[in-house]
Design a protein that fits this description.
Layout: E1 4-6, E2 10-11, E3 26-30, E4 33-38, E5 41-42, E6 45-49, E7 52-56, E8 65-69, E9 72-76, E10 85-89, E11 92-96, E12 102-103, E13 112-113, H1 125-130, E14 135-139, E15 142-148, E16 151-153, E17 155-159, E18 162-166, E19 175-179, E20 184-187, E21 193-196, E22 208-210, E23 221-224, E24 231-238, E25 242-245, E26 253-255, E27 258-262, E28 265-269, E29 272-276, E30 288-293, E31 299-308, E32 311-321, E33 325-333, E34 336-345
Parallel strand pairs: 1-16, 17-22, 27-34
Antiparallel strand pairs: 2-12, 3-4, 4-5, 6-7, 8-9, 10-11, 11-12, 13-19, 14-15, 15-16, 17-18, 19-20, 20-21, 22-30, 23-29, 24-25, 24-28, 26-27, 28-32, 29-32, 30-33, 31-32, 33-34
InterPro entries: Cell_wall/Cho-bd_repeat (IPR018337)
Pfam family, one: Choline_bind_3
Protein name: Cell wall-binding protein
């Protein structure tokens, strides 16, 4: 199988079982929706019908919209059929691979110039398939990060609390790095972001985060966003001084689920607390986190993560106001979501 690059949150739904169906199988509808039945039996989980895949709940009813299992997503159209390829949902276009897996390309990517010395190439299939999920892969002097199955990252990512940059082939970058806007950054031999070179005060924000420590295969999480709409810090960026605490412009404000800020302000919101769906207190899964703006030219959204008891249980939303306008920011954390609106003014 050809490996694919992930430049955003990649969400995949695993297969479940369906009850056996005979030659008399048929669609039936009642006031609650559609079922696919065979006498007194009905389908649940995934089932392929006339070449299309459908998903049925435990009650047997056909599902529509986004469907989640573990950390992975599919989108079921109004007909119930699983989406593949590109599909407009609301006012946004989403892309799905041939297996129906959502490929989210909304994070900051493709905006840097590679500094990899020598040949940049994807990992070999043999090497990649032998590596465990959520792990680093080394081959021929290059380092990659594997998420799962045949997917690895490129672009900028926060992995276990450190910022990394990967080129278009998924090769981790080292040393001096020049972005397309001309700003230079320094990454260590281990790939971790060290500082800005153009200005040491420059901070590097990224919209995707991954964690590698887990104690459960259940990717389901619960989010407590009750403190999210509180402002912890507001910065402004000066071309000479870099990012500084903003004491000059009007303070950013919050009204309900709406953040009001100015162009040039960089804001840290309150942390989202993440917990496992597992009932065991010690259970905690790997996390795949993405922050997505409906228009990143108006407001760029990012995330930071922090530990508690050895696990990254806290996600801090970050926001940069770039030009006047209004956007919605959505955070995806293992499929669970939360969102807020942003109004940017001069």
């Amino acid at each position: 199988m050809v490996k694919k690059l992930v430049c955003g949150l990649l969400i995949v739904l695993s297969m479940t079982i369906s009850l056996p169906m005979g030659v008399s199988a048929e669609w039936k509808r009642d006031n609650s929706g559609w079922k696919y039945t065979d006498g007194s039996s009905y389908s649940y989980g995934w089932k392929q019908i006339n070449g299309s895949w459908y998903y049925f709940g435990n009650d047997g009813y056909m599902q529509k919209g986004w469907v989640l299992d573990k950390a992975w997503w599919y989108y079921l159209q109004d007909s119930g059929a699983m989406a593949i390829g590109k599909l407009a949902i609301g006012n946004k276009t989403y892309e799905f691979d041939n297996n129906g897996r959502w490929i989210n390309n909304s994070i900051y990517s493709g905006s840097t110039v590679t500094n990899t010395e020598g040949e940049s190439k994807p990992p070999s299939q043999e090497k990649f398939e032998s590596a465990p999920d959520f792990s680093w892969v080394n081959e021929d002097g290059n380092t990659y990060f594997k998420i799962t199955e045949d997917y690895y990252v490129h672009g900028a990512w926060n992995i276990d609390g450190d910022i990394y940059e990967f080129d278009k082939n998924g090769v981790m970058q080292k040393g001096e790095y020049t972005a397309l806007d001309g700003k230079k950054y320094l990454f260590g031999d281990d790939g971790k972001f060290i500082k800005g070179i153009t200005n040491p005060q420059y901070k590097l924000w990224v919209a995707g985060a991954i964690t590698t420590k887990s104690t459960t295969d259940n990717f389901g999480v619960k989010l407590d966003d009750s403190n999210m709409m509180s402002i912890t810090d507001t910065y402004s960026e000066d071309s000479e001084k870099g990012s500084q605490i903003n004491d000059i412009q009007s303070k950013a404000t919050v009204e309900g689920r709406t953040l009001n800020c100015k162009v040039g302000q960089y804001i840290n919101l309150g942390a989202i607390d993440v917990s496992s769906e597992d009932t065991e207190k010690s259970s905690f899964p790997n996390l795949i986190i993405i922050s997505s703006s409906t228009d990143s030219s108006i407001a760029y959204s990012a995330v930071d993560i922090s530990r508690e008891d050895g696990y990254f249980r806290h996600v801090t939303p970050q926001l940069a106001g770039l030009k006047p306008g209004k956007v919605t920011i959505t955070l995806y954390i293992n499929g669970a979501t939360t969102s807020y609106d942003v109004v940017v003014t001069e």
